[in-house]
Design a protein that fits this description.
Shape: globular
Number of strands: 14
Strand order of the largest sheet: 3-2-1-4-5-6-7-8
Distance between the termini: 38 Å
Radius of gyration: 22 Å
Helix content: 25-40%
Mean pLDDT: 91
Structural class: alpha/beta
Low-confidence stretches: none
């Protein structure tokens, strides 16, 4: 397969997860000449990352992973454009940004995060390439809208465990505690190369691999399994279109269109059920656990006695109409769903 250099220079790829696998994928994409990258991760570099991640050095421990890989990739190719997003792909990455990508790469270690990537890519109509590694084993799958879906292939057991976070770092720590050398870097090299190869196919516009590809490094074997799970009734299969673009990016301008539906509820205060005392929060619901834990007074009250007042939707009765969209948990370059009497409208910021 031949691909023109200008296509690679113009290509836009998002990589979610900057651990061992993300390191390999990013390294490969930069060496191939991909010109524009968006990296997403919420974590910092730990000592254990150094034995399996090619872009991290001892001096990087404690730094945000996205910042470290951005610097490292620019060191490999100073012309590459790298946008770093330190956050959660489920809430901190705008859907309009995903729509700008040629392809999205999943280098994550939890079912919930994969589920979120699938939801976003389906809404944006984008192909995403998933990789997973453990020990000397790994898998690679390509999810194409209308052909296969991560959520549709989970099954009952997978859906039950959906929200469990199962990080590879935990496996590594167990191996190191037992005196075993971590072997994740071997599988990361193989799976990362496979993912990069499929990304090239997407950019070139040629057919991609639609099977699950499995690598077994211990037995030096590779096999494929048919993976075309697509249920028309799946709740994730909602493509947000048509998209409208607005010039004024403010809550007031959106409310003139209709009721704003939030991706994550907004909490303005927490109330003590027993005393009725209220404590101002003004945060998205996902940040409330940390807020309560760090609050000198709220942290001493059992959670069962606390009630948070929240808004899942915002209409003209919302008492804080001048709040910035970011304060409501709406990221930059997002697409907002707005409820109107005639149905939903999708507005790009």
């Amino acid at each position: 397969m031949n691909i023109e250099e200008d296509k690679l220079r113009d290509a836009r790829i998002m990589v979610v997860g900057c651990g061992a696998l993300g390191n390999e994928v990013l390294k490969n994409l930069v060496l191939l000449g991909v010109g524009h990258l968006v990296v997403v991760d919420f974590d910092v570099v730990e000592q254990g990352n150094l034995t399996r991640s090619i872009l991290f050095r001892p001096v990087d421990v404690g730094r945000r992973k996205v910042d470290v890989v951005k610097d490292a990739l620019r060191g490999i190719n100073a012309t590459v454009d790298v946008q770093a997003i330190h956050g959660d792909v489920a809430y901190d990455v705008g859907l309009a940004l995903i729509r700008q990508m040629n392809v999205v790469m999943g280098c994550v270690d939890s079912r919930w995060t994969r589920y979120c990537i699938q939801r976003l890519c389906t809404r944006a109509g984008k192909t995403w390439i998933d990789g997973g590694i453990i020990g000397m084993e790994g898998t690679m799958r390509v999810f194409v809208p209308g052909v296969n879906c991560y959520a549709c292939g989970l099954g009952t057991e997978g859906l039950d465990e959906l929200r469990r976070r199962m990080p590879c770092s935990g496996v590594i720590r167990q191996m190191e505690a037992a005196g075993h050398a971590p072997t994740t870097s071997v599988a990361a090299s193989v799976i990362g190369a496979w993912q990069a190869a499929e990304a090239l196919k997407v950019i070139a516009g040629v057919p991609v691999e639609r099977n699950m590809c499995y690598y077994d490094g211990e037995n030096l074997s590779v096999r494929k399994a048919v993976f075309e799970a697509w249920d028309d009734d799946c709740v994730l299969h909602e493509q947000w279109e048509p998209i409208e673009v607005v010039r004024e990016h403010s809550l007031k301008s959106l409310l003139r269109i209709g009721t704003v539906v939030l991706n994550d509820a907004f909490v303005d205060y927490v109330e003590n059920r027993e005393t009725g005392e209220q404590t101002e929060a003004m945060l998205p619901a996902r940040r409330m656990a940390g807020f309560v834990k760090q609050h000198p007074r709220l942290s001493t009250i059992p959670m069962a006695k606390l009630c948070q007042h929240e808004y899942a939707e915002i209409d003209t009765s919302f008492p804080y109409p001048t709040l910035p969209l970011a304060a409501l948990g709406i990221p930059a370059h997002d697409i907002v769903r707005i409820k109107t009497p005639t149905g939903y409208r999708y507005v790009e910021l």
